[in-house]
Amino acid sequence: MVFRWRIQLGFGAEQPARLVSVAVAGTEKMSGMGVNGGALVLQGLLPAPDGMAAVELYDGRRVFAPEGTDPEAVRVHVAERETGR
Questions:
Q1: How many domains does the chain have?
Q2: Cα–Cα distance, 17 to 65 (Å, whole number)
Q3: How would DSSP label each residue in 22-80?
Q4: 36 closest CA partner among 55, 12, 73, 61
Q5: Which residues, 6+ apart, have CB-to-CB distance to 30 below 8 Å?
Q6: Is the pTM of this model over 0.85?
Q7: d(CA 56, CA 53)
């Protein structure tokens, strides 16, 4: 697929390829979220592993934690780890 795109976009041609911006429908609230916003589109595709539960973070991202874990404690832990970087 990548090689076909390279040909279609004119990679190596005398004139450079023209690229356009794209947006996924229904993701207006994710603008400005960068890479993490794209992950929201895929969240329904990855089921929770056995023994784990999905916890939705404040910004809409999901993480997996052991079943029975307090979701609020997971959210606080992730927020603390991300602000500590």
A1: 1
A2: 44
A3: ---TT-GGGTT-THHHHHHHHGGGSPPPTTEEEEE-TTS-EEEEETT--HHHHHHHHHH
A4: 61
A5: 37, 38, 40, 60
A6: no
A7: 10
User: Residue 5: helix, strand or coil by DSSP?
Assistant: helix
Residue range of the domain that includes 19: 2-83
Q: How far apart, in whole angstroms, are the C-alpha atoms of residue 65 and residue 62?
A: 10
Q: What is the pLDDT of residues 10-68, one digit of tens each?
A: 666 666 667 777 776 765 554 444 445 555 556 667 778 889 998 989 888 888 999 99
Rounded Cα distance, 66 and 52, in Å: 4
